[in-house]
Every structure is written in structure tokens, then in C-alpha cells.
Design goal:
Rossmann fold; eight-stranded mixed β-sheet; 340 residues; disordered N terminus; 17% strand; disordered C terminus; alpha/beta
């Protein structure tokens, strides 16, 4: 079964207003993306769904030469008592009242570091610091020692720390954006959508960018990730998966969300991104969230490429945080086409 047919099967019964619209956005929006440099583009196309370890060799030279723009980095600030509960600050000294971008890395729920290498994920926060944000790069506790809902709980702890301390570094605690990749996106989605991990006052953030995460849990024996990190984090009892799926809680939250995935991403992540997309369309009365697909990119290069000349995604996020979601979420939607 081809990817669109599998997506139709998984999203069956939603109607063409939802499903066809999603298919157009995901499978066609790549045409507007800026291309990577020719040598990297060629390697990405050759690699396609191949070994993701090749991304480091592709991008190290570009990231080493990338501008750092006077960004000051303050390392290893504790936001909790566990050794994994630490974050780094990326700032341009002398700036104040800046919006804040908090990044949570991926790693299949059982691994991953805020410093994946000396250059990555520093490149992500350097990019946002150079473009008018206070950048924060956060680690979180890992499964199996810390299963569900530890990820969402750690996002909550980071947000609480940011609200209390970010102004010291030039940030505006009233303008916090959360950005998660893969497992990090799952944790961010849990925090912004599921009231069970939020403070009583609500999530307290301005928006969330979710890149290639898992938002709906399905017991699928053909999913190679299921018997590894997914079960280590979410548990082995499928009867609990619906409650633990972030997409099941979209009506508990009004946080604006931007969805991102890559052209050569994993099918299981494409499917759950589609399910969350449709759920958010319904939540907002037919006004669907911004959805960006990165042309030529894969599950790892989609964050490796930040702060290089291929800045299409960065510009999309900057535009969305500054005006895009506000222009679509606050319009009168009485006469919009609803998804039934």
C-alpha cells in the first residue's frame, strides 16, 4: 500500500474536506521550499530514507563556518534536581524583552542530548538568538527510568523556570514559544494539549512548533519504533494509548500549533502528524494550522540545517511567531467551512 493509501486508511471516515486538504499540504507544500546547497541537496536525495548518521558529515563544514553573531551561551543551568534537568541559554547581550524560543531535542524517548554534537543543537538556538529571540536548549529525563508522563512534566518545569528567570537574560516571559523535534515534539504536544501536565493557570505559552513527533499512539506490530522507545516511554498496555495520545486532548487547549515534517520522514510520524492536523482543524472550526514540509530533508537534516544558507524553515517559523498564527486564529470563523 502506498503512503497516501495508508494515510487514507488510517484517517478513514474523516471526509475529503479534512483528508484531501491534508494530502495537498503535506505532499505538495515542499515545492515552495528553498533548496539546500547543491552538494548537500545531491547527498540528501541520494540518501533519501537511508542511514541518518550521514547527516553529520553533510553539515559539519557548513555549521562550523556559519555566523554566530555575537551569541553568548550560558551552559548547564539546572531547572530541576535530576542531572538531566538542565538547559542552556543563547542570548545577544544587551537585548531585552525578547520573545523566547525553547527547544526540546529528539531521541526516541530513551536517548538524546541538547548537545548532540559540539555544533548541534546549538545551531538551532544560535539561529533564533541571531533573529531576535532568547534561545533556550533543554534536556529532559529519559525512559525507561522515567516513563510517561515525565516528558510533559519536564516541559512544564522548563516553562516554569523560564517564566521566573528569563527576564534576567533579556527574555519576555509573556512570549514563550516551544519547539520540539521527534520525541521532543511529543513532549511539547503533551504539555500544550493535555491539562494533566499543565499548571492550574494553563500552559502559559504563545505557541508551539511540532516537528516530526508522535501524537497518536497505535498498536502497530509493523512499526519498528513501537517495541523500543515508544513502549519504554508510553508503556506496553495498548488500552492506555488513547488517553496518552496528545491528539486526544486538543479540545483542552487553545495554544496555536505549527506542524513540520520532512519529505523523507518516517511514515508512522507522517500518519500521526496527519491525525493531529485534522484534529486541530476541527478544534479551530475549519481553520487548519500551518503545516510545512521540508523539501529533500529527512528526520535528522531537518534540524541539522538550521543556521545555514538553507533557512526556509527558520523564516517560516519566524513569520509564524510574529504574525502568521494570529492572522488565522482570531478571524471571525462563523461562516468557515467546518469539518463534520
Amino acid at each position: 500500500m502506498n503512503p497516501i493509501s495508508q494515510l487514507r486508511s488510517r484517517l478513514g471516515g474523516l471526509g475529503c474536506a479534512a483528508l484531501c486538504g491534508f494530502a495537498v499540504i503535506v505532499w505538495s507544500s515542499a515545492s515552495v521550499a528553498q533548496n539546500p546547497p547543491p552538494d548537500i541537496k545531491r547527498k540528501l536525495v541520494e540518501q533519501a530514507w537511508g542511514p541518518l548518521s550521514e547527516n553529520r558529515d553533510m553539515y559539519d563544514a557548513a555549521l562550523t563556518a556559519a555566523p554566530k553573531g555575537g551569541v553568548k551561551v550560558t551552559k548547564d543551568i539546572a531547572y530541576g534536581s535530576d542531572p538531566r534537568q538542565k538547559l542552556d541559554i543563547y542570548q545577544i547581550p544587551g537585548k531585552s524583552n525578547l520573545p523566547i524560543m525553547v527547544f526540546f531535542h529528539g531521541g526516541g524517548y530513551t536517548r538524546g542530548e541538547r548537545d548532540y554534537s559540539p555544533l548541534v543543537h546549538a545551531n538551532v538556538l544560535t539561529y533564533f538568538a541571531r533573529n531576535g529571540f532568547l534561545g533556550i536548549n533543554a534536556d529532559y529525563r529519559l525512559a525507561p527510568a522515567f516513563p510517561w508522563p515525565s516528558g510533559g512534566e519536564d516541559v512544564a518545569r522548563v516553562v516554569a523556570w523560564v517564566k521566573k528567570n528569563a527576564s534576567t537574560y533579556g527574555g519576555n516571559p509573556g512570549r514563550i514559544f516551544l519547539f520540539g523535534h521527534s520525541a521532543g515534539a511529543s513532549h511539547v504536544a503533551q504539555y500544550v494539549l493535555d491539562r494533566r501536565v499543565q499548571p492550574s493557570s494553563g500552559p502559559g505559552v504563545s505557541g508551539a512548533i511540532l516537528m516530526s513527533g508522535r501524537y497518536v499512539l497505535h498498536y502497530d506490530p509493523d512499526d519498528p519504533s513501537l517495541t523500543g522507545g515508544v513502549m519504554d516511554y508510553f508503556g506496553k498496555d495498548p488500552s492506555r494509548y488513547e488517553s496518552r495520545s496528545s491528539a486526544s486532548h486538543v479540545n483542552e487547549s487553545q495554544v496555536p500549533i505549527m506542524l513540520v515534517m520532512s519529505e523523507f520522514d518516517q511514515l508512522n510520524l507522517a500518519v500521526t502528524s496527519g491525525e493531529l492536523f485534522v484534529a486541530l482543524c476541527r478544534r479551530d472550526g475549519g481553520r487548519c494550522p500551518r503545516f510545512v514540509q521540508l523539501k529533500y530533508h529527512n528526520h535528522m537534516s531537518e534540524f541539522y540545517h538550521f543556521n545555514t544558507q538553507d533557512d526556509y524553515l527558520g523564516k517560516e517559523i519566524l513569520e509564524w511567531t510574529r504574525e502568521g498564527f494570529g492572522a488565522t486564529r482570531h478571524l471571525d470563523n462563523k461562516n468557515s467551512d467546518r469539518i463534520d
